[in-house]
């Protein structure tokens, strides 16, 4: 994966989201036809070309959201300090 230019400074410039790093609204990870984006409406979506393959279903939840891989390996989508979605790992 290649990291899109709009990513937060806390995103590692590689093909992975490392522990403790995060995606801010508008940030995306790219891999060929695939885009994994933290949308501005708080929805986290995986696209293949322009077709949404899956999402966190957290659209229109606000604008202060970010997605992170925590140090405990749990993937979490936060709105400020409230967890909206997690992988429960």
UniProtKB/TrEMBL annotation:
Residues 14-89 form the Bulb-type lectin domain. SUPFAM superfamilies: alpha-D-mannose-specific plant lectins. InterPro entries: Bulb-type_lectin_dom, Bulb-type_lectin_dom_sf. It comes from the Eukaryota. This is Bulb-type lectin domain-containing protein. It comes from Ceratopteris richardii.
């Amino acid at each position: 994966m290649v990291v899109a230019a709009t990513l937060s400074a806390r995103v590692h410039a590689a093909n992975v989201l490392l522990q403790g790093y995060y995606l801010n609204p508008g940030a995306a990870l790219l891999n060929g036809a695939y885009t994994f984006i933290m949308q501005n409406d708080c929805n986290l979506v995986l696209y293949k070309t322009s077709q949404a393959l899956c999402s966190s279903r957290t659209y229109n939840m606000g604008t202060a959201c970010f997605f992170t891989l925590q140090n405990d390996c749990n993937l979490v989508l936060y709105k400020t300090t409230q967890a909206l979605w997690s992988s429960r790992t």
